[in-house]
Amino acid sequence: MSKPYYDAADLRKFGKITEWSEELGNKFFDYYGKVFEEGALTAREKSLIALAVAHTEQCPYCIDAYTKDSLQRGVTKEEMMEAIHVGAAIKSGATLVHGVQMMNKVNKLDG
Amino acid sequence: MATATKSLKKQGSDLAQSNKQIEILSNGIFQNGELPTFKNKISETSQFPLKAKKLEILQINVGYMCNQVCDHCHVDAGPDRKEIMTRDTMRQCLEVIKNTGAHTLDLTGGAPEMNPDFRWFVEEAAKAGIKDFIVRSNLTIIRANKKYYDLPEFFKKHNVHVVSSMPHWTRGKTDKQRGDGVFDKSIKALQELNAVGYGMPGSDLKLDLVYNPSGAFLPGDQAAMEKDFKKALMEDFGIEFHNLFAITNLPIARFLDYLIASENYEDYMYSLVEAYNPAAVKNVMCTNTLSISWDGYLFDCDFNQMLELPVNSKSKHISEFNEELLEGRNIVISQHCYGCTAGAGSSCQGVVA
Questions:
Q1: Measured between alpha carbons, how far is B188 from B177 in angstroms, rounded to an integer?
Q2: How far apart (Å, rounded) are the C-alpha atoms in residues B78 and B67?
Q3: Average pLDDT over residues B291-295
Q4: CB B31 within 8 A of CB B24
Q5: Does pLDDT of B5 surpass 90?
Q6: What's the pLDDT band for B157 if we cut at 50, 70, 90?
Q7: A/B interface, count of CB pairs below 8 Å
């Protein structure tokens, strides 16, 4: 059986990306760390945003990471699911709002 | 996590044996070099061997019997555990309490209140005038039986500092870890403690809560969690408390059993090692604490007690307690110690770094 494209254990190796491009890798991780610090938003709120975006980006590593991070911050499963629905609503809304472009085109070509 | 009804010991589980637990913690990913052993890790910053400093906290485990069977329990406590401290051993402890330089006395269990000599011991120990006298109460014991209903008044009378477990401010997460109905009973008990003055702003009657995660993940920031707990418990139930201690679950006993059964063991150990904080090593609780078991033996901490790893000292039992001899001893370590050095560190008093 061939190996799957995604391996959950690879998430542990994320830091290794700096090995092949140290300066850029370090800059990214510095930035990443800073973004998730407590600021105008709490770290808990940021974790929920990250969880929602992890789903819209369909990144399995990010989903694992921010599900765990949310649990660590005391987020309940109901809150997590609601956050994902927010992501899903924007994602589907972004699809459907393009329907207006389709309608415009139909009206122009066949109106 | 499913809620158990019997201790691992009663179930006859292999993991009830401390040597089996130590074997698991020493083999696998730690034996094949995938992860560094705790000894190697603290050696990187020249912190091996860990040495005991001046004794500050005397923690006495008065028995493993408990009215609850919590999924994460490192004691493997429960109604079926019969290990109970006798009054004779308590007398030996009292001699030590009267003469020790320690500023804190910390009674734990099981549910310490279930020891038949608990009240006598508290009354006697309170006379020693120790600065901070803690009883670790699981809260539900206060509502478990009529004979315990007056515990809030009893604690108040002896100026006991109450430290209680509360895994979450929601019913679902609390009951999942500690059993059905635990949340409602705990809320009622907290309200009764508040009613006699415990946990109120400015009150000398200290009421602190202990938060430890309900699953295979580490606790979040203690200050942020405290803020969330205070807001939710006040808004939903009008409950006040002083401080929240965020404690990491150590991979021993029932929590180790859960980690293995749920296939989370390796990931959890990775999380602990990745979160290793050398600054937390300096203040780990074993350096200023002694743990005394129900039968009077001395350990570096309650976790080592459960793993049956005795102190590395000639003074091994309360009957031959020698504070000078114990100071400067080498602390006995294994991979479970990563639980106390992850992130901001963890101790029975919460974060340490």
A1: 18
A2: 6
A3: 98
A4: no
A5: no
A6: very high
A7: 32
Chain B residues whose CB is inside 8 A of the A73 CB are: 220-221, 224-225
Contact status of B251 with chain A (Cβ, < 8 Å): no
Domain spans in chain B, listed from the N-terminal domain onward: 14-341
Token pair belonging to A8 = 């959950």
Token representation of residue B80: 């079926």
Whole-prediction pTM:
0.92
Query: Which residue shows structure tokens 């340490």?
Result: B352
Of B91, B133, B141, B80, give the one whose Cα is nearest residue B112. Answer: B141
User: Does any CB of chain A come closer than 8 Å to the CB of residue B14?
Assistant: no
Q: Which residues fall within 8 angstroms of residue B306, CB to CB, at 6 or more apart? A: B18, B74, B75, B76, B252, B253
d(CA A61, CA A65): 6
Pair of tokens at residue B257: 């059993």
Dihedral angle sign, alpha carbons of residues B210, B214, B219, B224 = negative
The CATH homologous superfamily to which domain A16-110 belongs is: AhpD-like (1.20.1290.10)
Distance CA B72, CA B66 (A): 14
**For residue B310, is pLDDT > 50?**
yes
Q: Where are the domains of chain A?
A: 16-110
**CATH number corresponding to B14-341:** 3.20.20
B2, pLDDT greater than 60 = no
Q: Is the separation of the CB atoms in A43 and A73 below 8 Å? A: yes
pLDDT digits (tens, 9 = 90+) for B18-42: 999 999 999 999 999 999 999 999 9
